[in-house]
Amino acid sequence: MSTTAADAKMNAFVSSLLAKMTLDEKLGQLNLLTSDMDVTGPSIRASYKQDILAGRCGNIFNAYTPQYTRQLQELAMQTRLKIPLLFGFDVIHGHKTIFPIPLGEACTWDMALLEKSAHVAAAEAAADGLHWTYSPMVDIARDPRWGRVAEGVGEDTWYGVQVAKAKVKGYQGTQLGANNAVLACVKHFALYGAVEAGRDYNTVDMSRRQMYQFYLPPYKAAVDAGVASVMTSFNEVDGIPATANKWLMTDLLRKEWGFKGFVVTDYTAINEMINHGVGANTYDVGNLALNAGVDMDMQGSVYISEGKKLLDDKKITIAQINTAVARVLEAKYKLGLFDDPFKFSDSARAAKEILNAENRAASRDIAKRSIVLLKNEQQVLPLKKSGTIAVVGPLANDQRDMIGTWSAAGDWHKAVSILDGVKAQAGNATVLYAKGCNILGDSVLIKKLNAFGGNIELDPRTPQQLIDEAIATASKADVVVVALGETCGMSGEAASRSDLDIPENQRPLLEAMLKTGKPVVLLLSNGHPLTLTWEDAHVPAILETWFLGTEAGNAIADVLFGDYNPAGKLTMSFPRVVGQIPVYYNHKNTGRPFNEANKYSSKYLDVANDPLYPFGYGLSYTTFTYSNLQLDATKLAPGKTLGVTVTVTNSGSYDGEEVAQLYLRDLVGSVTRPVKELKGFQKVMLRKGESKTLHFNITPEDLKFYDKDMKWTSEPGDFTVFVGGNSRDVSSADFTLLEK
Ligand code: BGC
């Protein structure tokens, strides 16, 4: 059947169903409620049963497993119209097989792999009764204090666009309706990553130009890729909460971008608009949300409580309700739920497809590629598989933290600790272990984290006893691997930090290990970019391992022993100190760019302007040199493509992969332009001694921006092309875009 014929069939089905529905049944389709989850698994709460049976709830989240979703779906099948429930869940970086946190996974610079992890997650979720994931999160963020940077892909717009496309494709597959595809939900629309001071749920305020140029493109890319749903954000956009923002939800999303799916609020986001101060009660805020074009209410039950009254008072029309309901029904139709409401609730399939060896292998592969080598002096790494290795630190023998934030259905008992990974791959080496210190020493913070689901267990020994044991262990070893960083509850939602150092109680352990005189490798597990100025100055080797998921320990061992040569590159700058934030590579030049010789230039008195580790940065066990950057023309006619070539040589002594990055600068514009913008990259494998010439094409689209009239266009004039292994260390060449 052609798309138009299929659409016509769907439209006819949905219209005829709508014609049969009462107002209550319609409002029920706009209502999304959470199920109760407890440690032994989800359980039915009486009120849901009644709501579902009464047709007051058409959608459930936080319910999974084939058995449980089947039970709930059976209730829906007892309703008058038998409209199937839609089951949503936060499948953020894997369902049961957990992949690296998104900020870590982004460091692979491998879109095929990012698509694959989404595909595996979708297949597992679908086998576990789910229809809909609340992912991808594509909020561009320049403030590493924000806890939710862990869920996104960092600071770059162009890169965010590539990831948004890959993720939607990975989750939704080629066609919804396949039993291994789920509805994706791009979030949080919009601008959530720009919360003031990096504090979660805080105010956002930015110019239209900034939105269009830097923050909106990844959401739009998801829409262009056919994302089935959009989630509103908690923050305000231009003074109006996103969930009440008609400009955002209707003018931009529907009219300008042509979005056809449905919009769901974030968790109780309608109700929270009372706190925002744009309505006095649920009636007011329900009115705002419905009129803004928000289709489904997550957990607020406002449409259920106020919908009828709003209609009676003529604040909204039945046509508006019908449009919203139709969008929800269409999603259910596309999944094939009207043909078989139980098609995703298949226990035999779940047993076979969830957390199987193949999925774990995919997770390990992506995890090892997410690791970023930040420093490697004196070739401390890779480690030899002989002699004695001391593995110390609070994150060394830790499974819980390895799966990171938002690993909702992930079972940390299935995760591989760093210690176990190292032991399994150590060959002839002897591996010793000591904890060295607790993960945190700050009792107030521990209490806070444990109160909200953390399970930080403290070793009762004193800090000195723990360190002494670690020193004794290290003294028997040839090399010391120190696993430090954050516990997983220190990033993610409602987990912003004002201080990005590794927790201060961990520093004495690191100092003690360095004092032993043994070579030290620092392994970091964390969900924010950290401030590592001290560590960079004192520790010879540093590996950024994020929270790598179920296969964390194995992936880390792959890299430690050089079975895999690390090639990850950061997608978010690591500041030197918190006071530099926001620090990001694609900043503007200002009227007084930094100049050492000029007192009155843009700078700090006490720290450099640039980050410690810039966007795109990451080392390898080998070295790469760039040479012979050439443009195939220095004058470019409008509408033409410019060829760029550069030779990359593996000049070190290991085979390895390099991510060659291409940046552009538009030197003169009708509005100010960033000093650099990523416009392309290539990941290449080079044997030691091997050289390859890489070809990039700069297309007319790459030169465009929002001009002084907010038109997406390019302007004639001079441009610089930069190519290199990160955003700081680049070679450059110039060209001119001609008038005609
Ligand atoms: C988060 C969303 C999430 C939702 C449902 C909210 O608190 O902001 O990202 O999808 O909860 O769990």
Automatic annotation (TrEMBL):
Query: What name appears for this protein in its UniProt entry?
Result: Periplasmic beta-glucosidase
Q: Which positions make up the signal peptide?
A: none
Domain Fibronectin type III-like, which positions? 658-727
Q: Is Endoplasmic reticulum among the key words of this record?
A: no
EC number(s) from the headed UniProt entry: 3.2.1.21
Q: Where in the cell is it found?
A: Periplasm
Keyword Signal found: yes
Please write the reaction equations for the catalytic activity of this protein: Hydrolysis of terminal, non-reducing beta-D-glucosyl residues with release of beta-D-glucose
Q: Which PANTHER family match?
A: LYSOSOMAL BETA GLUCOSIDASE, PERIPLASMIC BETA-GLUCOSIDASE-RELATED
Q: Which GO molecular function annotation, any one, does this entry have?
A: beta-glucosidase activity
Domain of life here?
A: Bacteria
Q: Name one GO cellular component term.
A: periplasmic space
One GO biological process term: glucan catabolic process
- Pfam families, per the entry: Fn3-like, Glyco_hydro_3, Glyco_hydro_3_C
Q: Please state the protein's primary subcellular location.
A: periplasm
Family under the similarity heading: Belongs to the glycosyl hydrolase 3 family.
Identify the keywords attached in UniProt to this record, alphabetized.
Glycosidase, Hydrolase, Periplasm, Signal
